[in-house]
Amino acid sequence: MLNKIVNAVAFQLCWFACVLGGSLWAAGAVALFLMWHSQVVKIHEWRFIIAGTVAGFSIDSLWYSLGFIQFPNYNLAVIPAWLMLLWLAFNCTLQHSLLTFFQRPWLIALLSAIAAPFSYYAGSVMGAIELSPFGLIAVGLGWGILMGCLSWIFNKYTPAVTVK
Q: What's the pLDDT band for 43 if we cut at 50, 70, 90?
């Protein structure tokens, strides 16, 4: 239970470091989180962390290229490093602090579709991201579908998970 709490708190600290501090702070915070996470991770988990990070990076890059999300003073072709690192940190929560939800595809899809837009909106209030009128809808739909699919794949192809 303590590992779940540490996982959740560490992710929230990473969220603030990424959103408020940008890529440099994100790199440090996520590196520290990964150092701790490497102590509790199971070998099969890495493929989901990588797959979820690549999928999240891809969907946010799509929303970015379509103009649904933008970043102040930023004009590269893909999303900023801090958001890529935030996806990496988030995916480290799925089989730990979010496992109860992640084991239920319909529940993680629903909660993601509702909670993700709030997170992106909070980032916009803090000045890290700009959202088009359709941006929050795209984020909610994208997250709901992505998390539902990842959860379904996880449940179909991963042996029973025991959390430390």
A: confident
Contact 50, 88 (CB under 8 A): no
- What are the structural domain ranges in the chain? 2-157
For residue 8, CA distances in Å to 1, 12, 58 come to 11, 6, 24
Tell me the CB-side half-sphere exposure of residue 43, using CA atoms within 13 A: 0
pLDDT for 11 equals: 97
b/e map 29-62, b = 16+ CB within 10 Å:
bbeebbeebeebbeeebeebbeebbebbbebbbe
Alpha helices in 66-95 (DSSP H): 81-91
Q: Which two tokens stand for residue 109?
A: 């899809």
HSE-up of 58 (CA within 13 Å, CB side)? 7
The model's pLDDT over 4-16, given as tens digits with 9 standing for 90+, comes to 999 999 999 999 9
Report whether 55 contacts 113 (CB < 8 A): no
Task: Tell me: pLDDT of 161 over 60.
Answer: no
| Biggest distance spanned by C-alpha atoms of the chain | 45
